[in-house]
Amino acid sequence: MIADPQLNPAAVELGSFFPQPPDAVWRALTEPDLLERWLLRPTGFVASVGTRFRFTASGASNDEIVCEVLAAQPGEQLTYSWLHPQAEEPARWIVDWTIRAQGRGTRLLLTQTGFDIEDRRQKMIRNATERSWKRLVLPRLGAVIHH
């Protein structure tokens, strides 16, 4: 299910196109060594529903993100919960990656939900999260996929 940003302004929705096939994009989203290169270091990650795992920033084991795989369809979709328990006000988000073949490449849609934009602080976090995905994380993902 692809959310319409007009219907859900609280969602972060970003689409990207990569000239590589869907299996190359899937590998970048699911292979721990590749994940660490563009996102964070995963511990215990397997692209299988029900798998609980953690993301940590390199060298910062006290600052981790607790996750659970909610959906995993190889080459099509990966969805996991995302909870940062050390945050001042922990929030539980859902991060969804939808992969679609498009021409000779792949269309990737990132959707992150769980923001309460009625709360001013949450709205600011939502906007900062969108900027971070757009300016930092997705370009790094693209570089990993291209290699």
TrEMBL record:
The Activator of Hsp90 ATPase homologue 1/2-like C-terminal domain, residue ranges: 21-136
Superkingdom as given in the UniProt entry: Bacteria
Pfam families per the UniProt record, alphabetical = AHSA1
InterPro entries named in the record: ASHA1/2-like_C (IPR013538), START-like_dom_sf (IPR023393)
Q: Which residues form a coiled coil?
A: none
Q: Which Gene3D superfamilies match?
A: 3.30.530.20
Q: Which family does it belong to?
A: Belongs to the AHA1 family.
Q: What is this protein called?
A: SRPBCC domain-containing protein
